Amino acid sequence: MPLTKLQFRAGINREVTSYTNEGGWHDCDFVRFVKGFPQKIGGWQKRSNQSFLGTCRSLHPWVTLDRDQYIGVGTNLKFYVDRGGAFNDITPIRLTTSAGDITFSATDGSARIEVTHTNHGAVVNDFVTYSGAVSLGGNITAAILNQEYQIIEVANSSTYYIEARAVATISDITVDGQLDPTPVLANSSDSNDGGAAVVGAYQVNSGLDTVVTGSGWGAGPWSRAGWGDPSNAAIVSNTLRLWSQDNFGEDLLLNVRDGGIYYWDSSVGLATRAVNIADLAGSTAPTVAKQIMVSDRDRHVIAFGCDAEGSLGVQDPLLIRFSSQESITDWAATATNTAGDLRLGSGSEIILALKTRQQVLVFTDTTLYAMQYLGPPFTFGVSSLSENITIASPHAAVAVDDTVFWMGQSEFYVYSGAVRRLPCSVRSYIFDNLNDQQLSKVSCGVNTEYSEVWWSYPSLDGTELDRYVVYNYLEDCWYYGTIGRTSWIDRGIFDFVIAANSDGYLYYQEVGFDDGTTNPVSPIEAFITSSPMDIGDGQQFMFINRMIPDLVFQNSTALTPKVEFTLRVRNFPEGTYFNSQSEDFVKSQSVPVDQRTEQLFFRLRGRQMSLVVRSDELETTWRLGSPRVDMRPDGRR
After folding, report:
1. Other Cβ atoms within 10 Å of 194 Cβ, number
2. What confidence category does residue 609 fall into, taking pLDDT thresholds of 50, 70 and 90?
3. CA separation for the pair 194, 134 (Å, rounded)
């Protein structure tokens, strides 16, 4: 029998059985499709060796008038501006105390310091910087007290605890994403209270890194309030710390979801923190919002899900307010400005607003709206595009030109003039293995180099983003794998895709061929598995004795790159590949393939055959073509 060319459809299909999917691919990891053929994805390497504190769920790149390249980095603990791979802390200050409001108390032999401050408003993991303190009399010197600390426990509204540590530099604070661990133990001489000039500068409250649902006693994360205190409010998905960011010229506007709106002036330097726009002179801005945005065409600042004029502090989750043109402080609507507001009529809260070339799309939990600039006297208007839609999270959508892709709670959608459900060949596989309690962590990004939309999601047994699913809008196919990125920005300002990982580092994606999260780097274990194929509709056994591979190691830097080809056979559609009623035949056989391999020899019998291509070598990448197999009808023996 002549050699049979193996040609498979692009993409992974898990919506039908593997046997029904004959001629297609069934499973993969770290593999994409280019021009219909599978190839290993690119590697990743750290942008720098400096890490950030917390989990990053928001990245925003921009360039200043001086051509400085910045990235806004929002985590559950901090907000940074990345310049050249260095993280500059611009986290806003929520409270600066008067001198003497804070006192310290130390215990002999312990690094644990009790801090007393009436109505401090802090929660566990908050950061506070002290100044003006004097030595407690012994080991706890003024230099040790007058630095930034992270609160480790909150006893009540007037008392919390820190752990005294050695004086730290900026680099010490961000080693492996942790504060400097070197404790300083108090001794019996540390009996003073820090003096009457102590001032504390409290940064905005830290946010949750894991979604907690429910209400009542015991709800919420452990030790978030006083020990054993009951929860007096429902804790819902928006307790997860999420940031939104946008540029106002070369400056940055940032908003912590369901919190304040802040402004960072790039001209004042990286040592200056962002400030609350409600505190700026003459400001009539909202004090709370779900998301902030600057309209490209007309330069209005838009707040979504904010408090109304005249009802500051009372959040309306469906209200949209916009400032007067070219102003970040003038939000009071008058006859002489363009400030105003709109209220959406459907849904219970605004989840996400997303800019496209023509309009702003606004997602509530049930409806998609289009918001467009109309000009005077109304400024903006909204219209409903589709009802009965869902969206997984505030970061689950991405715009590619005027086409918008997003993940819902049980399916995928696309908008390109009309909303439609996006056919997905891995839909059940993804949503049946997703932790819906952590759905609001879902992160979406685009890799335009390969025409891909990536969604990172938490697997069923995980709480952090550890899986991904990709839609290739050029190839119109789907594939998936086992890494997760908590935030993502496409190349443009920077030469490569940049993604945040839960280990506290930013990574360049599609750089090299290896896993740069380890030191030294480790190989990426990539594979793809075909659905089984047969001859004579599975009525006959086949004998396989030879394969001619078709594979290129394009751009591989390994001295001798290689992959492993495995042919697996079985007798029944639901049977295993490795067990048989007879032990007389080998059911699986693997052969390494390098750049000089001309043909492979096997000795396999079965009714169905599946191909697996796998690699786990450093500095290796590959693209599969159309291998040919010598298979012919055969008997059972």
Report:
1. 25
2. confident
3. 5
Distance CA 276, CA 260 (A): 7
- Domains belonging to the chain, first-starting first, are 4-23+525-634 (2.60.120), 96-203 (2.40.30.20), 207-234 (no CATH), 390-491 (no CATH)
Residues 6 or more apart whose CB falls under 8 angstroms from that of 269 comprise none
Phi and psi at residue 612, to the nearest 5°: -125, 130
Name the H helices within 60-162.
142-145
Residue 602 and residue 563 in contact, taking contact as beta carbons nearer than 8 Å: no
Q: What share of the chain is helix, strand, coil (3-state, %, to 5)?
A: 5, 40, 55
What are the pLDDT digits (tens) for 375-392? 888 899 999 999 999 999
* End-to-end Cα, the chain, rounded Å: 18
Alpha carbon distance 344, 382 (integer Å): 8
DSSP classification of residue 560: S
Both tokens of 545, joined, read 């004795």
Q: What pTM, to 2 d.p., does this model score?
A: 0.91
CA distance 11 to 33: 7
Distances (CA, A) of 503 to 175, 435, 475: 11, 20, 32
Q: How far apart are CA 64 and CA 524, in angstroms?
A: 37
- Read off the DSSP letter of residue 176: T
pLDDT, tens only, 393-405: 999 999 998 899 9
Tokens matching residue 108: 């002999």
Q: Tell me the longest C-alpha to C-alpha distance in the chain.
A: 94
Residue 9, classified by CB atoms within 10 Å of its CB into exposed (0-12), middle (13-18) or buried (19+), is middle
